[in-house]
């Protein structure tokens, strides 16, 4: 089963395979929540299927093994989203790819989060990409091409996944049983990724983020203290800083003259515009970069006084906001 917005890509890849034109190295690139893994698994089953056709048959011996998770010619390097892909991992996969197929058909390796290659493992995978064995396929997945070595991307067929339209996403969410309508701000926050939106809407606090904009407005007008807003953000853990990041992005959008309908906090466009009129594009850019660095520090270092550091960051925003007043 493939998601409807991925069907054209899945069909194109299937046609290339049946015409013997499919590249041995494939790179699926797209933001989280578009279904890269589902596409990779769908193609993998087709490559291993014993029958002809543009879709895997689902009932041959190979398909049964694949569905049971026991196919000897399918290998996946997953759960590597929080650490680097080691050279030992790649050496093991290279050995598998160099061996003969146990079922007499294709061999398929899928690697999630390919941006987590380090220099050694990236160089190791190049051997398989440059000298592939017969009927072997390597499927890489990543969120950002810019984080991959050019020597890897240049040796792969790149498939970029795009989000469906707002209307298509809303219709699909309705089919999944999501009762309430899709909020445009939530759509923009998740960059239109249907699976991310589904996960958010199935939670109990999908629209909680909307509380940030009025809090920032009150803070910049001197009605609340920085530690109060910092406490609010800290209570929502990493999600809170993500909301603040998108608030800054809304400031940036209005600074550049974007349509208010593209904002995450569109209902508070007037107060955000006041901030946009006070800060330069460069200042907002550097604030956004600093916030991302702060999030990274919180992930990697325990023992940091997070509320204090968030308060200091908020003070910097207020200082820049008040500098022109």
UniProtKB/TrEMBL annotation:
<dbReference type="InterPro" id="IPR027417">
    <property type="entry name" value="P-loop_NTPase"/>
</dbReference>
<keyword id="KW-0235">DNA replication</keyword>
<dbReference type="GO" id="GO:0009360">
    <property type="term" value="C:DNA polymerase III complex"/>
</dbReference>
<dbReference type="GO" id="GO:0008408">
    <property type="term" value="F:3'-5' exonuclease activity"/>
</dbReference>
<feature type="domain" description="DNA polymerase III delta subunit C-terminal">
    <location>
        <begin position="221"/>
        <end position="318"/>
    </location>
</feature>
<keyword id="KW-0239">DNA-directed DNA polymerase</keyword>
<dbReference type="GO" id="GO:0006261">
    <property type="term" value="P:DNA-templated DNA replication"/>
</dbReference>
<dbReference type="InterPro" id="IPR050238">
    <property type="entry name" value="DNA_Rep/Repair_Clamp_Loader"/>
</dbReference>
<dbReference type="GO" id="GO:0003887">
    <property type="term" value="F:DNA-directed DNA polymerase activity"/>
</dbReference>
<dbReference type="InterPro" id="IPR015199">
    <property type="entry name" value="DNA_pol_III_delta_C"/>
</dbReference>
<protein>
    <recommendedName>
        <fullName>DNA polymerase III subunit delta'</fullName>
        <ecNumber>2.7.7.7</ecNumber>
    </recommendedName>
</protein>
<keyword id="KW-0808">Transferase</keyword>
<keyword id="KW-0548">Nucleotidyltransferase</keyword>
<dbReference type="Pfam" id="PF13177">
    <property type="entry name" value="DNA_pol3_delta2"/>
</dbReference>
<dbReference type="InterPro" id="IPR008921">
    <property type="entry name" value="DNA_pol3_clamp-load_cplx_C"/>
</dbReference>
<dbReference type="Pfam" id="PF09115">
    <property type="entry name" value="DNApol3-delta_C"/>
</dbReference>
<dbReference type="InterPro" id="IPR004622">
    <property type="entry name" value="DNA_pol_HolB"/>
</dbReference>
<dbReference type="GO" id="GO:0003677">
    <property type="term" value="F:DNA binding"/>
</dbReference>
């Amino acid at each position: 089963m493939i998601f409807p917005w991925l069907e054209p890509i899945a069909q194109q890849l299937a046609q290339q395979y049946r015409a013997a034109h499919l590249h041995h190295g494939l790179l699926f690139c797209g933001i989280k929540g578009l279904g890269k893994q589902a596409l990779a698994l769908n193609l993998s089953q087709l490559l291993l299927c014993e029958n002809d056709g543009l879709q895997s048959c689902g009932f041959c011996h190979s398909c049964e093994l694949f569905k049971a998770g026991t196919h000897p010619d399918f290998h996946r390097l997953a759960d590597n989203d929080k650490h680097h892909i080691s050279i030992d991992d790649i050496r093991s996969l290279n050995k598998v790819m160099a061996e003969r197929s146990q079922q007499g058909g294709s061999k398929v390796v899928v690697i999630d989060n390919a941006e987590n290659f380090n220099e050694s493992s990236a160089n190791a995978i190049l051997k398989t990409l440059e000298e592939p064995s017969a009927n072997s396929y390597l499927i890489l997945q990543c969120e950002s091409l810019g984080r991959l070595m050019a020597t890897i991307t240049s040796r792969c067929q790149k498939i970029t996944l795009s989000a469906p339209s707002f209307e298509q996403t809303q219709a699909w969410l309705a089919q999944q049983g999501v009762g309430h309508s899709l909020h445009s701000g939530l759509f923009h926050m998740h960059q239109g990724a249907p699976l991310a939106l589904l996960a958010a809407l199935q939670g109990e606090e999908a629209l909680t983020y909307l509380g940030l904009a009025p809090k920032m407005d009150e803070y910049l007008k001197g009605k609340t203290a920085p530690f109060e807003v910092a406490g609010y953000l800290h209570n929502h853990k990493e999600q809170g800083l993500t909301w603040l990041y998108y608030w800054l992005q809304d400031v940036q959008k209005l600074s550049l003259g974007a349509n208010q309908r593209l904002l995450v906090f569109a209902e508070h466009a007037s107060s955000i515009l006041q901030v946009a009129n006070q800060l330069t594009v460069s200042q907002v850019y550097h604030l956004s970069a600093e916030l991302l660095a702060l999030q990274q520090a919180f992930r990697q270092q325990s023992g940091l006084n997070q509320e204090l550091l968030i308060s200091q960051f908020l003070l910097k925003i207020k200082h820049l906001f008040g500098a022109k007043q």
